[in-house]
């Protein structure tokens, strides 16, 4: 296993991606951050991780709907750090609406950001990983990669697609020391989830409190949101030698949601 490891984490200016990038930094990995947001805030995050953990952190604002920007970001990571050992496909958006009212451009954007971008990032690095005999591809899918909910047609389609693509990448990388796994979180209290509370309340005709209690935490037997640090800890483990034989898996971190 190379040391220090170099990782690219898409959508890491917020939420789960930032949690994974922070866990990697704590474990002395160099990280390329990506995602949208206020430039000063992002620079604060980047410089803060470098200073706190003594590793190198870069930022590239590639838009995950734009394949050329994705390729440029992956090249920039390699020219700054050397080979990319770990790729985390995490960038994602959500839209909650019944199918007959679902805006077509939202559907396309969710498929592009939540699913197709993982093809472009993976295509850019998997050849090098196979040549070097080591690589870790971690796709942040969702419990919605395994089961559906109403009003999330694009998201459920994209996440099921990601789980399927993960299996193919795992098969192609298996003999070359390259693993690919999907992490399938239940509800994690991030901006993506906060934003869908009012929309879900409207679609279901219930209050926002009922959305949290019944729609989000109802199916999670622990009755608790998943913590971003728990996703980060699993991602770190998947990068270790202890996880050499874990590949093609859809790993639930969902407080038991998919168990029933
Ligand atoms: P978030 O809104 O906090 O973060 C999303 C990140 O993606 C941000 O950094 C944002 O800037 C970035 N992003 C959005 N569009 C982008 C684009 N076009 N190009 C580049 N970056 C872009 O959301 P989160 O909850 O942390 O979600 C992260 C991932 O985890 C998503 O794939 C989401 O589907 C998945 N997930 C979240 C939950 C949850 O409950 N929060 C559960 C399961 C899976």
Q: What this model shows, in words?
A:
There is one protein chain. The chain is an alpha/beta fold. It has one domain (6-187, 227-254): NAD(P)-binding Rossmann-like Domain (Rossmann fold, 3-Layer(aba) Sandwich), CATH 3.40.50. The protein is built from eight helices and seven strands. It has helices at 15-26, 39-53, 67-81, 104-132, 153-173, 191-204, 208-216, 228-238, and strands spanning 6-9, 30-34, 57-60, 86-89, 135-140, 178-185, 250-253. It has a seven-stranded parallel sheet with strand order 3-2-1-4-5-6-7, sandwiched between helices. α3 packs parallel to α4 (104-132). It starts with 5 loop residues before the first strand and ends in a 7-residue tail after the last strand.
Task: Summarize the structure in short.
The protein has helices at residues 15-26, 39-53, 67-81, 104-132, 153-173, 191-204, 208-216, 228-238; strands spanning 6-9, 30-34, 57-60, 86-89, 135-140, 178-185, 250-253. With 260 residues, the protein is of the alpha/beta class. The chain is globular.
Which helices and strands appear, and what pairs or packs with what?
Blueprint: E1 6-9, H1 15-26, E2 30-34, H2 39-53, E3 57-60, H3 67-81, E4 86-89, H4 104-132, E5 135-140, H5 153-173, E6 178-185, H6 191-204, H7 208-216, H8 228-238, E7 250-253
Parallel strand pairs: 1-2, 1-4, 2-3, 4-5, 5-6, 6-7
Helix pairs in contact: 1-8, 3-4, 4-5, 6-7
